[in-house]
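User: Hi! I'm working on a homework problem where we have to compare a predicted structure to a textbook description. Could you give me the structure for the chain below?
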Amino acid sequence: MSGLRDKLARHLKPSAQGQMTQASAGGGNEREPEGIPQKNPDAGRLSDSPADSGLSLDDALQGASGSGTAADQVAHNQAAAAVPESAASQLQASESADAGESREWDKLGAELYESPHGSFVRRVCTYPLHSYHGKYRLDDLQGTAHELNAFHPDQAPPDARGLLFFDTETTGLGVGAGNLAFMVGIGYYDTDVFVVEQLLIRHPAEERAMLAYLGELMERFTHIVSYNGRTFDWPILQNRYVMNRMRLNFDKWLHLDLLHPSRSLWKHAMPSCRLGKVEEAQLGYAREEDVSGALAPELYFLYLAEGKTDVLRGVFVHNERDIVSLAALSVLISRYLSEEEPLALKTSADLFRLGQWLLKMGRNAPGESVMELGYGKLIEGSSTETRAEGSELFLHYAAYYKKAGLRERAVDLWNRQIRQAKSTAIVPVEAYIELAMHYEHSCKDYSAALEMTREALDTLRRRRKLLRKNAKDVAEERQILHRAERLERKLENKPKPVPNRKSRKIADKPRSDRLPKYATPSLFDLPSNLNG
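Assistant: Happy to help. Predicted structure tokens:
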């Protein structure tokens, strides 16, 4: 265990009081203490209870009765007189131990909380609503929370006070019955503050009391907001209620899992969509001296082994930051949905992903306007960006406008993609194929379609010399050859040849020299009359 403590030593020292985040709007700064709670005055404390002494006074007095000698009687009287002093000393020691443990939790801003169902550790922090977390004020959600009904359009729009922000710290990564949520963090909007409550169990026997308290508190809310909670935190919590034989109707809450919009918006723009990375890149909030969530189980086991509360300091702060970040991220997502977030500094790639996400969420008008803004930026000549994103960005926008019925704009984008890609070593084939289909089916210009098809074939063969051969390239080349044959017949006005049924039947007979299915012809020796 000492080795584990050495490994985690840098996370065990008490950290200086952090700061929330400064405001960036209007030149004003709002700096709120992070990790220092303002306690709820109504919170109860664990009442003092004497430890079991193992021997009651009656038991001690019971033993030497009438038949003993005078010496025995004297010894008995002395023992009887000594027992109350021993019990009192044990009671004093118990009270002293409880008071000492309470003082240790006080150092973390937590308390031993006693509910009608039992005791556990509770930590309460409050943030004024004008506080900033990165670039976003916490009270901004009160005016845009109703926009989050895009996640559940068939339900009533949520109110900020109906949202419960939820995160857990668990003993493992699975969702099975053996995984225990030793800390549950929740956040919610109160009258003039944002409240973060953290519920911790000192041992598994306190889990039932914690779950009962949490279940009663959750009844006030309509929506659960989490980050990957739908597939991890929420199922674990359901399992713990089942394991404790406690009933809770989990279907009554609507779930807003912010991991999914984060992936849609930033998966291709960031190396990772972990909450810590998203809050740094998108919310403008960088954590300092933060304990990784992966270390939380080890720190909890260290606390169970040594009983020292200071090892959990970093876990409390990490969980608190996660909860507040969920609120700030909800502000950003709702501002996107309400068209209140400024987009002037967004790249055409960012705007494409945002526009596509808005369309997927059923917000067609804002989605189309964002796509138009991104198209304008792409055409205006952000050559540095298009080189960084690759010429596929033209293809993505072209696919959108093709589906929207704006073929002229799609054709222009395919041609731009070809012109830009010619300066690179590997040219994509898709633009040539799209232009070939356009000229063949829309314009009936078979000559231009055949030219694009041959360009696609030459491009594919040049690319094949640079990259390893694969089955996809073989299938793609067969399709291109088939297209070229069809276009040549159309140009010559020749009917499609009818296969000879007799010869076909003979050809289909099994032959001993036929290649096995896993054998592929040489990529450079494909027959010229092969049909796709």
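For your comparison, note the following. Residues 14-69, 502-512, 515-532 have pLDDT under 50 and may be disordered. The longest helix spans residues 70-107. Good luck with the assignment!
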